[in-house]
Prior knowledge:
Layout: H1 3-29, E1 41-51, E2 57-69, E3 74-78, E4 81-84, E5 95-98, E6 101-104, E7 111-122, E8 128-139, E9 144-155, E10 158-168, E11 173-184
Antiparallel strand pairs: 1-2, 2-3, 2-4, 3-6, 4-5, 5-7, 6-7, 7-8, 8-9, 9-10, 10-11
Amino acid sequence: MSWRTAATWVLLVAAILSTWMVWRQRDTDSGPIRTQFRPDYVLKGLELVALDDQGREAFAMRAPRLTRDPSARSMDIQTPIFVIPSRPGQGGTPWEIRSVSAWVAPKGEEIRLRGQVRADTQDKQGRPVSIATEELNVFPGTKRATSDAKVAMTQPGFILSGRGLDAQLDAKRIVLESDVKARYERTAR
């Protein structure tokens, strides 16, 4: 074996090892870069009332913790309870909406509730109405709520389930968009 053949084999092995090491390093570094924002403020044990452009109550909220992202100007909230009132002059009971977490848009025009979302109110006859889903987007200014997830709406003696929701909260008009199933249950009197 000549020295040129030995040198060729050494260079070939070195090239294979260096390529393998670069390839392996690329796999560990290819994940998304996540930057942790530092909130410009953190509120604990808070209650707040947000007003709309006309100075009327858009929603009220209670939560153990709220953080605000200074760059996006949005808020992240842990285990919130939102109360969405009826429109003035329409009477009716407000919606009380709970979830594991929530994100509020910079001007409060959209609230994204995620994880074990439950919305409760009463219909015009005073019967309880409950909506359960894993995600719900609420638009306080228009008193509207939407979801693309599975949804169950419950009233005494009646359960309606499906996928997707479009609701006018002030009119208590709820539309399930697809895969709708209804189940009647006997209620105790």
